[in-house]
Amino acid sequence: MRSRTSASLALAVAATLGAAAWPSCVLELSDGHEATLRVRGRTGEASSLDGITITLEQAWLHVGGAELVACAGEPEARREARALGPSVARAHHGAGDGRAIAGAHAVALHGPAHTLGVFRPGPGRYCAVRLVVTPAGSAAHGLPDPAMIGWTLFARGHEGERPRELSAYSNGAWDVALREPLEVGEAPARAALDVHLDVPDALARVPLAPDADPLGIDLLRALAATARAEVQLAE
Question: Among 21, 47, 104, 138, which residue's Cβ finds the most Cβ atoms within 10 Å?
């Protein structure tokens, strides 16, 4: 595995309060509201900012947890906590917060949608999904290869006739705005929240030359910036 700077290693220890090690858990509430979180990706041919053409056949993003973020202006009791790690921890330990999902997943961005879990929110308006992205550990669900351990994004493909792998490393929280807010009333309701991540679109915004960003942070930022999410209401 390629080397990382000491500053990057310090960030991995401090950020997100160890999100990659959280056990898989979904808190079930009794109010009847369910919002299934799914992540869909796209791979394929892309041309980078510096003109390099690469075809990605497989890509995985490591997600350590997720939150459903209330819209601004909601009553304080309904607002999503801003301290990312504790709010997810509250959901796992049964403090009554159904707006958080914990569990480490290597999400395949080249196949069918990946279900991360189910939110069970109380009444209110929700405007975004927050994804916690962290370096993968060995216990991540769906880990494709030990080579991904320590990386947040891992991809395989070809540059011309030459096989090429891409690896990116970062910790962070991506707030992906919903196209339309999810409105939860008193009556039980079901919905799906689909987050779309377009890897070729992100690659078009960054350089891919061998000397470009060895930790791939710019690529992850581009992937976050191009992400979109929408609500699919159940009939």
Answer: 104
